[in-house]
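hiii so um. not sure if this is the right channel but i have a protein structure encoded as tokens and i wanna go backwards to a sequence. like what aa goes where. can anyone help
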């Protein structure tokens, strides 16, 4: 008799827990901030922060940005692109473990984060090519 009463209560409790778990994962998976951060961040298999910062600066310049500020101690580079519209990009480089660096690019237009993935893809594609060329001593 107790088992008959306990079984529905357990089923209801489990269904509520599953519902909460799926709602939380949906919020995280569909959250615009999480999606934006995933577009903005890449990991690179190098631990040479100084070389990465120099490559970030060169990549930004190749893409038509003017370097406003660079700080190797903090690991940030801020640049502005003025061709037709003003885009400000801040790139942060930080260690991820002992063998990788995380590079995060934050692009803004009129003080609003750019949510279109294209500028981030363009930056990271160019940066990946520059890192490859630098690693193989190609100028």
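sure thing!! here u go:
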């Amino acid at each position: 008799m107790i088992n008959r009463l306990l079984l529905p209560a357990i089923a209801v409790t489990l269904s509520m827990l599953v519902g909460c778990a799926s709602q939380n994962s949906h919020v995280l998976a569909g959250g615009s901030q999480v999606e934006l951060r995933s577009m903005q961040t890449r990991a690179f298999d190098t631990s040479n922060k100084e070389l990465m910062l120099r490559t970030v600066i060169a990549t930004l310049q190749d893409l038509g940005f003017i370097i406003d500020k660079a700080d190797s101690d903090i690991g940030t580079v801020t640049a502005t692109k003025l061709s037709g519209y003003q885009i400000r990009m801040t790139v942060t480089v930080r260690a991820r473990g002992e063998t990788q660096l995380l590079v995060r690019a934050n692009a803004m237009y009129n003080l609003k984060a750019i949510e279109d993935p294209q500028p981030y893809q363009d930056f990271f594609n160019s940066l990946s090519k520059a890192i490859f060329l630098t690693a193989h001593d190609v100028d």
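oh and Residues 89 and 107 are 4 Å apart (CA to CA).
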